[in-house]
From TrEMBL:
UniProt superkingdom: Bacteria
Species of provenance: Chryseobacterium panacisoli
Cross-referenced Pfam families: ABM
Protein name: Antibiotic biosynthesis monooxygenase
GO molecular function: monooxygenase activity
Stretches assigned to the ABM domain: 3-96
Keyword Oxidoreductase assigned: yes
InterPro entries: ABM_dom, AI-2_Isomerase_LsrG, Dimeric_a/b-barrel
PROSITE patterns per UniProt: ABM (PS51725)
SUPFAM superfamilies: Dimeric alpha+beta barrel
Keyword DNA damage recorded: no
Keywords, in A-Z order: Monooxygenase, Oxidoreductase
Amino acid sequence: MNLHIIALFKFNENYLMDAVELFQNLVKETRKEEGCLQYDLIEDKDNKGTFFLIELWESVEHHNRHNGQDHLLNFRKDASKIMESSAEVYKGFKIY
């Protein structure tokens, strides 16, 4: 069963270019992973510095493998230094 994820990130406005650079590498590398069906970065149109990752994984197991990838671990380490708050992550399965 496909796993849908929406992850919300809020970055300090002084670090927006840094955040985008971190995201670009993360998205580029994640899209190469087996089981990654969608991995898109969206910037909130009304709230500067607020980003969403829209993810679709072939299975929970594929996403679990993603969680151990160096590019994700490096993103988490580097992004945590410039984020306003912790990321919010929502995971679920399509109902209809």
